[in-house]
Design a protein that fits this description.
- The complex is a heterodimer of chains A (about 300) and B (about 625).
- Chain A has about 300 residues and is of the alpha+beta class.
- Chain A folds into three domains: about 1-55, Uridine Diphospho-n-acetylenolpyruvylglucosamine Reductase, domain 2; about 60-180, Uridine Diphospho-n-acetylenolpyruvylglucosamine Reductase, domain 3, CATH 3.30.465; about 185-305, CO dehydrogenase flavoprotein, C-terminal domain (Enolase-like, domain 1).
- Chain A is about 35% helix and about 25% strand.
- Chain A has a five-stranded antiparallel beta sheet with strand order 4-5-10-6-7.
- The longest helix of chain A has 22 residues, at about 270-290.
- Chain B is α+β, with helices and mostly antiparallel strands and about 625 residues long.
- Among the domains of chain B are: about 5-80, Beta-grasp domain (Ubiquitin-like (UB roll), Roll); about 205-295 and about 355-445, Alpha-Beta Complex (Aldehyde Oxidoreductase, domain 3).
- Chain B has helices at about 25-30, 90-95, 105-120, 125-130, 140-155, 185-190, 225-230, 275-285, 300-305, 330-335, 380-390, 415-425, 435-445, 480-490, 525-540, 545-555, 570-580, 615-625, and strands at about 5-10, 15-20, 50-55, 55-60, 75, 205-210, 215-220, 230-235, 260, 270-275, 290-295, 320-325, 340-345, 360-365, 370-375, 395-400, 430-435, 450-460, 465-475, 500-510.
- The termini of chain B are far apart.
- In chain B, about 50% of the residues are buried.
- Classes of the chains: A alpha+beta (about 300), B alpha+beta (about 625).
- The interface of A and B includes residues 38, 81, 98, 102 and 189 of A.
Chain lengths: ~300, ~625
């Protein structure tokens, strides 16, 4: 059970930093709180008393979204459900709605935030690989010398390992910036023990752009999670996929490439099978959504994997 | 801890109250506003019994600190039928029979309401996905999906309103006949009170101290510091039991609270009744217990080896119950067989996971009758046992069965009602205990884990000549239903098959694991899993279709079972025919199909690992634009 003396809801970033300073060493930041509450139960942290809980979910700066031609800026307290409800976001970040639909359930993703998912740094965090595929950067803010200072960092560098990030003491994750990719087809493949409320055993985000004929990959981003301590971009595979025309043979060869990366603590053989299947399914789904020429891929392959 | 002034609009009414900063929205609406329609099933966002609308968005109120809902407009399940008339969706739940224990149903109704608000034309696949955050353990979901589809069609005018009401009553008495459940309106509206929803004036809250050890001697218990705490009204241990302690279904081997030693992790050792649950929780940490750890035994095979730790003095061999069945001569049967196959089958412990965690309310009434209200699946037996344990005449003990929010056998054991009785007697105030989900999982009975060695002899044409089975079951620390489970497992071990020579032994063993007990099928699952799996293996070895090998051996009308029961009629052949048809079975021996299924792209089969039915609706809309 989680208990506290104060539950603080700052209305601005400055107010949040004030509260953090005056409760230094005795506070914890919460956003959606969807992981904090279950964490303070028997079997995980047990009964926990935190003198001051500082809830940043309602700070207007942290809920702002702006969509530019090249980049999209997401306030850290953006609820995951926004990627499904906001059609502009869905169009510019084409893998995110596919990821969001697998994220917990409809109710929890109305509350859970993108920033919370990142800072929590679970090896099975669903949003992180998807954002990495969108070349995401995190914006971190700190209050020092009477003003708010900010720094930026690539998301794949920010997440260090299971439950570990580069967030410094007194710092807040305030925003995420990532590539706007409206011409891309996106997919997100995930498997767990069930469909809702399930931790990924493996998940794969795919973003893919084709030439005008829909026969050659111009750009592709792949990021995978659940096979090791942190999500990884598959840059070698991406280079290989762009090196020649889109074909069944090229996809099959690409699908084999990341299989050797499986280094999870458990069920490696199973995950290798899944990785190969997901690579094919993810690429086929993304290619279709990007407008692939239907003659390019064998119908047998599509029937087996899509 | 400074209180927080909480303002909100709840079910159309404005409220302004003080709340405690750590309270969850669920606690506030249930405890402070007494709106108990929404339930707590897990407290961790997994089950959805607590789903409420916050500013029109469905959320799990067990994950919401109350401050997050400051100034919000909140709708609980009570809002849906506020005028007394059920909503279209609630009526549809009634019509399709979409409620059984009812504990998940308020949350289900809320999730279904949200699905229809989000997409009034939602299809079945999307309904499944939108209800994905809500778990039901009784209905199997199909009737719930049926209800949402029915409500959708009535709302859209595709079906007349009459479709929500009773059609023609089906004639005859048979399994599967449609009946209209009279208790459904109380469940879909959230008005039915489960034990954890009940309160009484002056009621105290109970918390239980549980053993961290699997096997340990209790050297001493000091409750004085806990008893001295302000707000603590009563603390009990086994020393407070006035009568002859011990309960069970077949053997009374389990004390109300651990007496002298603990035998499993999670066993109750002491309990506290206090003015609020938090005080009671804090009092638990003030109870000092000195344990002397003893070697434990966690495997039933090891428990029967010489020198193994002994759990109960009365059973020095750790055997709870052994059921033997002997029919014919198995040696002769194996000698007559063309094929003899032996395999070992194991099954694991399984938690019932009913949506309603255990809860109970007890009080001593004006006539000194000790009264216990709980979702108790065996109140008459428990009443008799408790009278002996608390040394009262049977006329001074009363059990009231509250609505059971799922039991499946898991609420047949009197594991907490005794503590409630003792605390009500000690404090002379009503006392209530509500288990957390974790507490329910750690302390209550599970399905028996089993290890079964099965040997079967068959002729070349598929007739079973002999079956020999030995099943060792882990009964855990106390007897509970083990004896009955072993008996049922043995009776049904040879399946509905005419086998001339049978030798069956089912043996329940004491270990320091969580006790095993009653669970739907009551032992038949473990032995049937072995026998049926074995038949498939034998079919493969003989080149027979798995349906065929069962038909060859099926008992027919008038058969005599292995335990000498005469069967008037046997529907197995009809059941096999129906199953073969409904499953789309590809006939032939198990080896004849190749390594790949042929039905994967059928329209009624959903490919694995797919989600996102809602995108089809979006794509359709975008195409139209």
């Amino acid at each position: 059970m989680l208990t506290c003396d104060d539950y603080l809801t700052p209305g601005s970033l400055e107010e949040a930093f004030d509260m953090m300073a005056s409760n230094r060493g005795r506070h914890r930041i919460v956003a959606g709180a969807t992981d904090t509450l279950p964490w303070a139960r028997e079997g995980r942290a047990g009964d926990v008393h935190i003198p001051a809980l500082i809830d940043v979910a309602k700070i207007p700066d942290l809920r702002e979204i702006s969509v530019g031609d090249k980049r999209v800026r997401l306030g850290a307290a953006t609820p995951i459900q926004r990627f499904l409800d906001d059609r502009t976001l869905a169009r510019t970040l084409p893998a995110m709605p596919r990821c969001a639909v697998w994220f917990a359930d409809d109710q929890i993703r109305a509350q859970a935030t993108i920033g919370g998912n990142i800072v929590n740094a679970s090896p099975a965090a669903d949003a992180t690989p998807c954002l990495i595929a969108h070349k995401a950067e995190v914006e971190l803010a700190k209050y020092a010398g009477g003003k708010v200072t900010r720094r930026r960092m690539k998301l794949d560098k920010f997440v260090i390992g299971p439950n570990r990030t580069a967030l410094a003491d007194g710092e807040l994750l305030v925003a995420i910036e990532c590539d706007a990719l409206p011409e891309f087809g996106g997919s997100f493949e995930k498997v767990g023990h069930r469909r809702s409320l399930v931790i990924s055993l493996v998940c794969l985000a795919t973003l893919l752009k084709l030439d005008e004929q829909g026969r050659r990959i111009e750009d592709v981003r792949l990021a995978i999670a659940g096979i090791g301590p942190k999500p990884v971009r598959l840059e070698q595979v991406e280079t290989f996929l762009c090196a020649g025309p889109l074909s069944t043979e090229r996809l099959e060869e690409a699908a084999d490439m990341p299989v050797s990366l499986v280094a999870s603590r458990t069920r490696q053989d199973y995950r290798r099978e899944v990785v190969r299947g997901f690579m094919l399914r993810g690429l086929i789904n993304a290619a279709r959504r990007a407008g692939a020429d239907s003659a390019v891929l064998s119908s047998e392959l599509e029937a087996a994997y899509a | 801890m400074p209180d927080l002034q909480f303002k909100a609009t709840i079910n159309g009414r404005q409220i302004s109250r003080t709340a405690r900063p750590h309270q969850r929205l669920l606690d506030f609406i249930r405890d402070d506003l007494n709106l108990t329609g929404n339930k707590e099933g897990c407290g961790a966002g997994e089950c959805g019994t607590c789903s409420v609308f916050v500013d029109g968005v469905l959320m799990k109120s067990c994950l919401l600190p109350v401050a997050k809902a400051q100034n919000a407009t909140i709708e609980t399940v009570e809002a849906l039928a506020k005028t007394g008339e059920l909503s279209v969706l609630q009526k549809a739940f009634h019509k399709t029979g979409a409620s059984q224990c009812g504990y998940c149903i308020p949350g289900m109704v809320m999730a279904a309401t949200a699905a229809l608000r989000a997409n009034p034309f939602v299809d079945r696949e999307e309904i499944k996905e939108r209800l994905g955050g809500n778990i039901c353990r009784c209905t199997g979901y199909q009737k719930i999906f049926d209800a949402v589809e029915l409500a959708r069609d009535v709302q859209n005018g595709r079906l007349p309103v009459d479709a929500l009401f009773e059609g023609e009553a089906e004639q005859g008495d048979f399994i599967g006949k449609n009946v209209r459940r009279i208790d459904t309106p109380s469940k879909v509206s959230g008005r039915l009170k489960y034990a954890g929803d009940m309160t009484m004036p002056g009621m105290l809250h109970v918390q239980v101290l549980r053993s961290p050890h699997a096997h340990a001697r209790i050297v001493s218990i000091d409750t004085s510091a806990a008893e001295a705490m302000e707000g603590v009204e009563g603390v009990i241990t086994s020393a407070d039991v006035p009568g002859e302690d011990g309960f069970g279904v077949f053997v009374n081997d389990q004390p109300i609270m651990a007496r002298g030693k603990v035998r499993y992790v999670g066993e109750a050792v002491a309990a506290v009744a206090a003015e609020d649950p938090l005080i009671a929780k804090r009092a638990l940490s003030a109870i000092k217990i000195a344990y002397q750890e003893l070697p434990g035994v966690f495997d039933p095979d090891e428990a029967t080896c010489p020198g193994a730790p002994i759990l109960h003095d009365y059973a020095p061999d750790n055997v709870t119950k052994h059921i033997p069945i002997r029919v014919g001569d198995t040696d002769k049967g194996f000698a007559e067989s063309d094929l003899v196959v032996e395999e070992t089958y194991t099954t694991q412990a399984i938690e019932h996971a009913y949506l309603e965690p255990e809860a109970g309310l007890a009080y001593v009434d004006h006539d000194d009758v000790v009264t216990i209200v709980s979702p108790d699946q065996n109140i008459t037996h428990h009443r008799h046992m408790l009278a002996r344990i608390i040394a009262k005449p049977i006329s001074k003990v009363r059990f009231i069965m509250s609505p059971v929010g799922g039991g499946f056998g898991g609420k047949e054991d009197m594991i907490y009602q005794g503590m409630l009785a003792l605390l009500a007697m000690k404090t002379l105030r009503p006392v209530r205990l509500v288990f957390t989900r974790e507490e329910s999982i750690i302390s209550t009975a599970k399905r028996h884990p089993s290890r079964t060695v099965l040997r079967m002899g068959l002729t070349r044409d598929g007739h079973i000549r002999a079956l020999q089975m030995k099943m060792i079951s882990d009964g855990g620390a106390y007897g509970l239903s083990t004896e009955g489970v072993m008996r049922k497992a043995a009776i049904l071990a040879a399946g509905p098959y005419a086998i001339p020579n049978v030798r069956i032994d089912t043996i329940g063993i004491y270990t320091n694991n969580t006790p095993s007990g009653a669970f739907r099928s009551f032992g038949a699952l473990q032995t049937a899993f072995a026998t049926e799996s074995h038949l498939d293996i034998c079919a493969e070895r003989l080149g027979l279709d798995p349906f065929e090998i069962r038909r060859i051996n099926a008992m027919r009308d008038g058969a005599l079972t292995h335990t000498k029961a005469r069967l008037g009629s046997v529907s197995l052949m009809r059941a096999l025919d129906a199953l073969e048809k409904a499953s789309g079975w590809e006939s032939g021996a198990p080896t004849s199909r190749g390594h790949r299924r042929h039905d994967l792209n059928r329209s009624d089969i959903r490919p694995p690992c797919t989600l996102g039915a809602r995108f089809a609706a979006v794509e359709k809309q975008e195409a139209a634009e």
